[in-house]
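pasting Magnesium chelatase for the record, 312 residues
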Amino acid sequence: MILPYSLLVGHRELRTALEIAYVNEAVGGVLATGQRGTAKTTTVRAFTMMTVGRLPVTLPIGATDDRVLGGWQIKKLMRGAAEPEDGLLVEAAKSPARMLYVDEINLLDDYLVNIILDVVSTGVLSVQREGRAEELHDVHFALVGTMNPDEGGLRPQLLDRFGLVADVLPEEDPEQRRRIVETVLRFEAERDDPGSEFMAEARARDAEKKAALDAARARLSAVRYGTGVIDACARVADAFELVGHRGDLVLGRAARALAAIEGAPLVDAGHVARVAKLVLVHRRGRGESGTLPPWTAEDDARVERTLPNAEG
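structre below
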């Protein structure tokens, strides 16, 4: 059993990113970056279990080409019957979550990174291997990854494909650390107890949260951009000297999703300001390939100067 989403302590930034990407799939994938042991994987799994009742399709380090791309069912092939078998990319596209989860994504082989990039960009998977030649269309999924920056950065081409990046920091407040330990130990003690009020309440809160996110997803199309919001997205992108227009677009899409989550009929500058870090932290200049400079108070101040009327 996975720790219920409602029992997670902290991780506000990562949870916000996952919720925004769920409400508006056009935002793109989510990357969680942080040191080991900060429950990045637990948060992703808890969110997926809450929303679709299943764990995400996961691409493990060391996965073979045929497991990722697809190949032949070996047992049937040995009996002389050639029957295709879906790889992880197709499985992710067909899964309820429509998500491919990659732990330690910065350690993934460059060859597989290039394949994933191409499929995420085009929705087309070309399989050319061992007598199987096939082009599969509509292979669409959200790419969600986690990484420990101490183990190396990500290639800029892959990093830019993530709509949102959440920085997961270890809790330093003693009270928060106590809550984490208490929650996990109680969960381990009561997760198999059918009469546990603790677990029943957690599952009920998860059900309420899922209903709220599904409602936000349903009303997303009715949310409109307020006066000056599109201009605000362009101003923020210019202030941070973004290359290309992907950042501008994701700012608008993420702000709209946040407005839907909050039940607002219009997107305002406050919504743009509150998603700015998630959208921009990985799109600023980088010294070394894939290395993210920390988001600072000056970055917050730059957003405030660009959006002087924003609240939140």
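The chain has a mean pLDDT of 87.
DSSP finds 13 helices and eleven strands in the chain.
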